[in-house]
Specification:
Elements: H1 3-8, E1 15-19, H2 23-28, H3 34-59, E2 64-71, H4 79-102, E3 106-110, H5 118-131, E4 138-145, H6 147-163, H7 174-179, E5 191-194, E6 213-216, H8 226-237
Parallel strand pairs: 1-2, 1-5, 2-4, 3-4, 5-6
Length: 250
């Protein structure tokens, strides 16, 4: 067993979700345009995805990494900033497909596809297709995503099933809801990381993180490194996850 596995006590989260916060503050603190902060943040995405892919290959986990890349509320930002973010997404898909293939990463996306530019959808579908047979880490980007919208869409889907007579109301349970979320088929996150010191969930995976361990880092996302990820993983490995039950050790 390697030193890193010993460091985690053999306990790594199967699914890590991250709220990547602080790109704008990173740029403004350096007298730069906010768009340059987002570009710096994209480099961090590559670093963290590559590290998680390595951990998956060498240590057996994590299996899933889900990143909050663009919320539905982000459309309220200045038009120029939104346009820059969409262009960066296109560039990221084009540039990182080779990296995903090299690291056996399978790409996935969640969120509402409406309102996304056709060029964004083209690159998204190309990446989905190229990586679909990869068997390593599953990287999910939440784009045009909001958890309340996701739950609303799930309720609508279930209502349609009920109206069509395919399910009775008394048959609807938590699994039914989970099966109709964007994340259907994925395990719920075990660890939620938020950067930049903010103590908010920000409408992210509200259903799925019911029992996730939370780790808030003061580090702005562009400065978040493998060492900071390791810090979060060590913290996770030391937690006693009881899921509402009593501690069997006491």
């Amino acid at each position: 067993m390697s030193d890193k596995v010993d460091q985690f006590g053999g306990r790594l989260p199967r699914h890590i979700a991250i709220i990547m916060d602080g790109n704008g503050r990173w740029a403004l603190g350096r007298g730069l345009d906010r768009a340059l902060g987002h570009r710096a943040g994209a480099k961090t995405v590559r670093t963290i995805v590559t590290e998680c892919a390595r951990l998956h290959k060498e240590n057996g986990g994590p299996d899933y990494l889900t990143l909050y890349s663009f919320s539905m509320e982000n459309w309220k930002r200045p038009i120029a900033e939104v346009a820059a973010l969409m262009q960066m997404y296109i560039e990221y898909m084009r540039l990182e497909r080779a990296t995903m293939m090299e690291n056996n990463v399978r790409f996935h996306q969640i969120g509402r596809l409406d309102h996304l530019p056709p060029e964004v959808l083209d690159e998204m579908y190309a990446t989905l297709d190229e990586t679909k047979n990869n068997t390593g880490l599953t990287l999910t980007l939440a784009l045009n995503y909001g958890s309340r919208a996701e739950i609303t869409d799930a309720v609508r889907a279930i209502a349609k099933l009920a109206a069509a007579g395919k399910i009775r109301p008394d048959q609807i349970d938590e699994q039914t809801v989970s099966d109709n979320l964007y994340t259907a088929g994925m395990p719920d996150p075990d660890l939620l990381i938020r950067t930049a010191g903010e103590m908010r969930i920000s409408n992210y995976l509200l259903w799925q993180i019911s029992y996730a361990e939370l780790f808030v880092s003061p580090v702005l996302w562009p400065d978040f490194t493998e060492a900071h990820l390791q810090e979060a993983l060590v913290s996770f490995s030391q937690r006693n996850r009881r899921f509402g039950a009593l501690d069997p050790a006491k």
